[in-house]
Amino acid sequence: MKTRVRKITSILMVAFLCSVFFSACMGKKGEQAEEKTATLQPLTGVIVMPTVMVEKAMNSARKGTSTSESVAGFVDGVISAELVKDNKAHMVTEGQLDALLTDAAGGRLAQMKALGAKLNANAVLEVKVTRFHERDGSDLSVNSPASAAFEMVLTHVDTGMVLWAASFDETQEALSSNLLTIGKVKNRGFKWITVEELVRQGLKERLADCPYLQK
Length: 215
Known about the structure:
Elements: H1 2-38, E1 46-48, E2 52-53, H2 60-63, H3 68-82, E3 89-91, H4 94-100, H5 108-119, E4 123-133, E5 136-137, E6 142-144, E7 147-156, E8 162-171, H6 182-187, H7 195-209
Parallel strand pairs: 1-3, 1-4, 2-4
Antiparallel strand pairs: 4-7, 5-6, 7-8
Helix pairs in contact: 3-7
């Protein structure tokens, strides 16, 4: 009987300690979430710079139908459509950028500050596409799937501090190659998508995750 009582007591003690441990962890996570929210910098506006295409970002199959300029324009268009309801977002074209920086001197941060002063914004969003490979095939079958990669960085112009950064790097996979992709495959209609569709999905996901945008 005593042995049984000791076992029950031991089990209750372990359960109590586990409860205390998990409560402490949950409390710590909550504090971290509150701290993260509290550290968000107040923004007067966000300047969205023209998309930059790195050299050799496009594959040979794509070069015959598009240029780096047209791809950059496509990316800018997707971003603009996603941020159209954000009054703080200021999209700038290459031409507007040249006109706004005619009297700007200094390095990158100095130019950002000059832009911010003229557009009443204190943050700059930069996007760089490092890979934009079109699929070789059709919706039903491919020799090689669409593949894309890009980086996004939001910088505070007053301090030069990176407020937020995200990246995207994906080559579409067949469901048979990775069963964990079933969610994506279903959302894409069980077909091979184009590189434009791949990039559009990636941009929407990343922008939706940015705590400074779409709020």
